[in-house]
Amino acid sequence: MLKVLLLRHARTQSNARKAYLGLTNEPISAEGAAFAAGLHYDSERKVYVSPMKRAVQTAEICLPNAERVIVPEFREMDFGVFEGRSAADMSGDTEFTAWTEQNCEPAPPGGSESWTEYRDMVCCKFDRLVTEHLSRGDNRIAIVAHGGTIMAIMSRYAQPEKPYYMWNPRHRSGYELLVDTASNGDWKLESWESLKTE
Question: Which of 51, 102, 110, 116 could form a disulfide with 81, with the two C-beta atoms 3.0–4.6 Å apart?
């Protein structure tokens, strides 16, 4: 059995104003850092981290003793021209309206990928990591990344099935998964639970 901790980074200033924050390399805010400082996951020996500054800082605070490995595939989605703008900022924007009417699934204007392409990238890497650690007999790993990363993983593997946006955790929150080797040699998600961070 392998326990996988999925942790969303602490809040940034853009997050506080509900702006789309994808590839902008913004640090966590002072408030976000103080909030994250109350959480520690010392039993994880290895943590896979998005290369974005906000994820790296959160991993340093919440998993200070774990070996950190940067994983480019666990970055946030590219929001293109919507980057740094909130839904309120874009009220009446025809490009934004068209994108949301398609459930935010196509690539945003100026963005590099659709939701499906992004989820496939994240889940391909996640699958390889889980398979590798199960084959070695490891029992715990952690991933510190983004709402998009976690929604991609949970919407692909978790039961009961839900729309991807319903898996979006609060900042510095997430899920703990329990996975095991399946009878066909692949792995299966045995169970999951929301992290208790309050």
Answer: 110
For 16, phi then psi, to 5°, come to -65, -30
HEC string for 92-131:
CCHHHHHHHHCCCCCCCCCCCCCHHHHHHHHHHHHHHHHH
Q: The CATH number of the domain where 161 resides is what?
A: 3.40.50.1240
Tokens matching residue 171? 């900042």
Instruction: Indicate the residue type of 164.
Output: Y
As for how many domains the chain has, the answer is 1
Q: Supply the pTM of this predicted model.
A: 0.95
Each residue of 134-148: pLDDT tens digit? Answer: 999 999 999 999 999
Give the span between the Cα atoms of 7 and 159, in whole angstroms: 19
Burial (CB < 10 A; 0-12, 13-18, 19+), residue 198, is exposed
- Directed axis angle between helix 115-136 and helix 147-157, to 10°? 70
pLDDT in tens, 23-50: 999 999 999 999 888 777 767 789 999 9
pLDDT over 70 (residue 197) = no
- Which residue range is the domain that position 111 belongs to? 2-194
**How confident is the model at residue 97, as a pLDDT?**
96
CA angle in degrees (0–180, nearest 5) for 76-182-70 = 25
